[in-house]
Amino acid sequence: MQERLRGDFGLALPDIPETDDWLPSDYFDAIVTAIATKRRWSIDANAIELGFYSFSKLLMVRDLEPGNWPDNTLVSHPLLRGLLCEGFTAEPPILPEAARLDEILNPIDLIHVVDADSSQTRVIETVRAGRNLVVQGPPGTGKSQTITNIIAAAVHDGQSVLFVAEKMAALTVVHERLQARVSTTSVSNSIARRQASASLPNG
What we know:
With about 200 residues, this protein is mostly helical. The chain contains 9 helices and no strands.
């Protein structure tokens, strides 16, 4: 509710005190003061509303607040400006669509820890070349295999990788593929920490 009112109405609700001696009536009084400038807004101190609210993305919302980034480094990032403002400059593909990959790529230079077809190879090599891209495809088209190969190639090239996924299952699939092929000490530790965090009781 605090985030919604702050974002939509520019209204800062007071925080609920973390002490045991606070009274709801005192908090309602503080809210009345906070909304004093809003016409037709009022507090019904005797009403109760029950509902299901998800806070799983709240930390992400706070991370994306421009005010949390010094010198506007978030809003000035070229990726965000490309997505939200000017768009991206057209670039020729690293590997031409009509090209035969066997004639361009040396197999010894390919870092594939799991099988990859030609379309997946194009994605992997495009990422290795430093390009930004979006990969779309229905389930079963090899996205997790492609991600696995991208991470393995990045590690081979001396880079660090932060792999973020909304669902734990996506992390697990890629982790298991990597675990079978490459050294994944840091990946294993990250998965273990997330599993431990998920098992902690709320509150």
